[in-house]
Structures are given as structure tokens and as C-alpha cells.
Design a protein that fits this description.
Helices cover 5% and strands 23% of the residues. It is built from 2 helices and 22 strands. The protein has a 5-stranded parallel β-sheet, with no helix packed on it. The relative contact order is 0.07.
Length: 270
């Protein structure tokens, strides 16, 4: 026999041990840490009147597998962090911002759908979502913040938007993609952006890139070729592993000199 829903107000849910909770119509905001560390909660249904989920509201709900949030337009920092069993997150169409660490340490999160209206992601928004396999970044995103998808160790496909300008520090550290198509218009690849992406095999740097931070592709032992069609303004030290990479660049360019200084193999574009 299926477990029935417990329909209740916010005040009533505070001391509830129910596994399936349906909050009463009229609830507008889930307060900060309201469900924090409630291990028995498995399913939560929010009414359409709920527009905001507070900071850490569901943090540490280790058995939460599903949430309905039809009217939500705001989620506070770490709203669902540490919800190990949450499997899917289809974010509401009205959301324009995903805050810092909202889904951090959601180890079981397999699928995420970001709304087209999304304009910004917070630091570590999906850090250590270890089961996540694919993510499509909406066109309105111009910058990926530090550690946005760091340690998503099964992330094999990333679709980046045409308008992306910045990939932040450690944004994709220790991810699993074999290739990444960097968009023309990208200007900054920050330090350690793809550190320890051990399945990455080849990288083509767009001519729009002006800055590449140190160790951007270091610890990626399967990269065999990195192609530069131009000279970025700033290039940090030890971008790649020394003994495995061949850098394709223009003979006599600053990138050519960089490779000679760091002992990287080169081949020259015609």
C-alpha cells in the first residue's frame, strides 16, 4: 500500500516525521533551513503559490528523491545541498538565477534541465553532482563561475552557449568529457578550468580567447593535440601535461615561444 501524503502548513511540517509531504495552498516561501536534516522526507510537493525556497531549506535531506516546485522562481544558496538521493531537477521556467551551491553534493543527481531564461549560475552550483552525465547551458549565460560543475565525475557531455565569454576557475575540474566545443566569443579560460579532465583528448582554442590561466588543462593525460590559431594576450604557466601534448600553433608566434620555454612539442599550421 502506497504511503499517503501528509498535507500540512509550514508550522505543522516542522515537527513532522512524514515521508511524503504536500504543503498547503497559500504557502509562498520556504524559510531558511526549514527542512534541513530531515532524513525521513522522501517526496515534497509545493503548491503553485510557493515562489521562493530559502537558503539551505532542504540541506541534508539525504533521502529526498523528488520535489515538485511549479511556481518557484528563487532558490537560496545551498537550497538542496547534500540531498544525496535527488535524481532529477527540472528547474522552473521563471527562474533566472541558480545561486551558490544550490545542488552541491547531490551525488545521485542524474539529469538537470536549466530554463531558457536563466541568466546566471552561482559558484559550485552543481559541484560534486557525481551522477550527472550531460548539461546544456542556456544561451543567456555569459560566464560560468568557479567550480560550477567541478568533480562531476560522470559528466561526459557539455553544450556551451554561443554567448559564453568566461569559463571560471575549476569550473569543470575532474569531469569526464572526451571533447569540449569552445564557442567563438569566449575570452577567458580561467586557471584550472579543466584540471584533471582525464578523458579529454583534443582542444581547439577559439581566436576570441584573450586569457588562459595556469594549469587550465593540466592533469589531462589523454590530450594529444591543442590547436592555437592566434596568440592570446595572457597565458599562464603549465597549461598542459608536458610529455603527452603536441601544440599546433603558428611558427614564430608568442605561443611558439611559450612552447619552447616550457618544453612542449609543437607542430606548425600552414
Amino acid at each position: 500500500m502506497a504511503t499517503p501524503f501528509y498535507t500540512c502548513t509550514l508550522k505543522e511540517v516542522k515537527h513532522s516525521q512524514a515521508r511524503k509531504i504536500r504543503l498547503a495552498e497559500g504557502t509562498r516561501v520556504i524559510p531558511t533551513h526549514w527542512f534541513k536534516n530531515k532524513p525521513k522526507v522522501q517526496v515534497v510537493e509545493l503548491p503553485e503559490t510557493t515562489v521562493a525556497i530559502g537558503k539551505g531549506a532542504f540541506e541534508g535531506c539525504v533521502n529526498l528523491v523528488h520535489v515538485d516546485w511549479p511556481g518557484v522562481t528563487h532558490m537560496g544558496d545551498g537550497a538542496f545541498s547534500g540531498c544525496y538521493k535527488l535524481r532529477r531537477a527540472r528547474l522552473p521556467q521563471g527562474m533566472t538565477q541558480v545561486r551558490q551551491g544550490v545542488f552541491e553534493d547531490c551525488y545521485g543527481l542524474e539529469a538537470v534541465t536549466l530554463p531558457p531564461a536563466l541568466e546566471s549560475l552561482g559558484d559550485a552550483a552543481f559541484k560534486r553532482c557525481e551522477s550527472l552525465k550531460r548539461i546544456a547551458i542556456p544561451q543567456g549565460i555569459t560566464a560560468l563561475p568557479p567550480e560550477a560543475f567541478a568533480h562531476c565525475k560522470h559528466l561526459v557531455r557539455v553544450d556551451l552557449p554561443d554567448g559564453l565569454e568566461v569559463i571560471g576557475t575549476r569550473a569543470f575540474e575532474s569531469c569526464a568529457m572526451a571533447r569540449i566545443d569552445l564557442p567563438q566569443g569566449l575570452t577567458v579560460i580561467d586557471e584550472c578550468a579543466f584540471l584533471k579532465c582525464k578523458s579529454l583528448t583534443e582542444v581547439d582554442i577559439p581566436t576570441s580567447v584573450r586569457t588562459i590561466g595556469k594549469w587550465a588543462f593540466h592533469g589531462c593525460p589523454r590530450i594529444r593535440r591543442v590547436t592555437f590559431h592566434h596568440d592570446p594576450d595572457t597565458v599562464g604557466p603549465w597549461l598542459f601535461n608536458k610529455n603527452t601534448v603536441t601544440v599546433r600553433c603558428v611558427r614564430g608566434s608568442r605561443m611558439d615561444a611559450y612552447c619552447q620555454d616550457h618544453g612542449y612539442r609543437t607542430e606548425y599550421a600552414e
